[in-house]
Fold this protein.
Amino acid sequence: MASPTDTAEGAPRGQERPVAEEHRRGDETREAVIRGRGLTVGFGGPPVLENLDIDVWRGEILGVVGGSGTGKSVLLRTIIGLNRRQAGRVEIFDQDLDTLTPAARRRIGQRWGVLFQQGALFSSLTVLQNVAVPIREHLRLSDTLSDDLARLKIELVGLPAEAATKYPSELSGGMIKRAALARALALDPDIVFLDEPTAGLDPIGAANFDLLIRQLRDTLGLTVFMVTHDLDSLVTMTDRIVVLGNRKVLVDGTFRELRDVDHPWIQEYFNGIRASHYDLDKMETA
Ligand SMILES: Nc1ncnc2c1ncn2[C@@H]1O[C@H](COP(=O)(O)OP(=O)(O)OP(=O)(O)O)[C@@H](O)[C@H]1O
Ligand SMILES: [Mg+2]
């Protein structure tokens, strides 16, 4: 578990080593695919995020938690360049997004997919058309090939083939999430950003969605940045959890490690009435 006030290397802020290197913690070798440093974001009033540091390691499923309004969605949008920063820098795959040419920025943008908290799909397009949007935008393929590729992605996320011709209003919540995931995966990204992916799903649908994400990570080698309030997802899915609060990353660690952190909100969240049901020892030996 790392304190967010340390840099990954223990160096004072501003003296970090360059990003294109691997990071050792204990006997593990980790490579940061995302590195945010000194991020400050606001919308006119007091900043929502202030001087925030975050690393995301290649291949991990990172859970991002924090009270409502702490800035989880803002952080996600800031990392992918949709929210303006007042300060700080974001590096993805060792590249500072601010320094890229529009063409290079567009290319690197193809290496991640996003499932947004709101407005997952275009309501006037069928599932197939929705999934084909990024394909048509970024790849020079014929319409037939674009549609074939979109159908493959629809299959990949476990939707029946007939879902392709349906409109979002004709789908269940779980199917909409899967279709949105298919669109996020359309360009074979290295990273997927998921904002509350299981919100609104019944427990079985949520568990199945979790399983799908995990399988995709294991088979495709994805890195997953997942904002969630879903304790089941946090316990069963994540390799590491980042806790947002007071405009920054309060702490990061595994679910088990965070249970021991002496902080009122973290205690309430990870050892409160709902979380206290999880017997991690039993789960690990089951
Ligand atoms: N575009 C915007 N303009 C103005 N304020 C914004 C904007 N986007 C977010 N905010 C504000 O930033 C704060 C953090 O919002 P954010 O959506 O990141 O919260 P969150 O942690 O994702 O919450 P939740 O768990 O409810 O989704 C809120 O006070 C919100 O009103
Ligand atoms: Mg949010």
User: Anything to note?
Assistant: Residues 43, 48, 66, 68-74, 117 surround adenosine-5'-triphosphate (ligand 1) (CB under 6 Å). The chain has two domains: 22-111+189-285, 114-184.
